[in-house]
Amino acid sequence: MDSIDQSGDQIQYWVALNRVPRLGTVRFGRLEAFFGRLENAWNADLGQLKSAGIEGRAAREIISARSRVSPDDEMERLRLAGVMAINWHHPDYPARLKEISNPPPVLYYKGTLLASDERSVAVVGTRSPTTYGREAAAALTTDLARCGITIVSGMALGIDGIAHHSALDQGARTIALMAGGLDIIYPREHTRLFQQIQENGAVISEIPLGVRPSSQSFPRRNRLISGISLGTLVVEAGEHSGARWTVQHALEQNREVFCVPGSIFSPASRLTNRLIQEGAKLVLNHNDVLEELNLSSVAHQIEMRLAPDLPDLATDDEEKKLLTHLENEPLHIDEIRRRAGLPIAQVSGLLTMLEIKRLVKQVGCMHYVMIREATPIYGN
User: Fold this and answer.
1) CATH for 223
2) 108 in a domain, yes or no?
3) So what's the pLDDT on residue 372?
4) N or C terminus of the chain with fewer C-beta within 10 Å?
5) Checking DSSP bridges between strand 281-282 and strand 84-87, what pairing results, if any?
6) 58 φ/ψ angles, rounded to the nearest 5 degrees
7) 184, 213 in Cβ contact below 8 A?
8) Do 42 and 17 touch, CB atoms closer than 8 A?
């Protein structure tokens, strides 16, 4: 890994200083403004640090860190872990993150960061979704991913995991913001998912290697989930869900907030229903998100370029004809028979074949819907 980033500054000193407690956005800014190159800040004495606006305790911690942190050793650790590090001047640093009030001075990532990720939507929610929540998360994320939207989440169990999986199933990009170092996979149940995301997106953290997630790091991490995205979609969340922190950050960052409505009797929908009452955009399908973000025309072009011609997947002429009578909303087999003008036994046989080919799905009580692709409902 090259120790000089494309901004011309020496990234190893940014990485080393990022190990120092109490050095956040403001103090990094002061160090850079005063010293120019952070190599000078790393080697500064107490008086120089004070002149730069770094108060006593923080200044002493910088000096103390030199005895236990080696900038070159830090870069070697990153290299061995396969992790890239960039500062906020690097051209690959997500542009939208620079807009928030407290952008991370250093980002660590595995995978790739692309300009197309500017078209991104965060999908978050409870770790314990209902069947309704799982289905809604999978369906909405699948449709957004098919429209070229990068799906952002936090790789937690529940809605987060469903969102990442659904995007990956479409061959779409997805980004996970982590609350600890990238050499620590949390939760462990998502070890395979962690690898898959890197192959078609990126896992990102502001936390140095070796640092485990903490109760404080999750709410702080959530500002990055909302900050890197055009808007945040909350699928299902109770009043005390961690998603509330993402929503709060999104509002502070002037980002759009979208919510899927739920049952008034379901504790898992209390936060989303309340947010809708308070002005969040109610979402019934993915177009509600795209229209609010002014992405409908771009998404339509991408979807038309990528979407298969479903009737062509039905090899039998009668199957193709029957597909024209189905909708995205459930239809009873008797209504399908009436529309098609075919005997019930023939309709039943055709529907069975279309189910096998995963072009239609029975949703209960002999009601069928047309599906563009299989939408698995993941456990996490």
Assistant:
1) 3.40.50.450
2) no
3) 55
4) N
5) unpaired
6) -65, -40
7) yes
8) yes
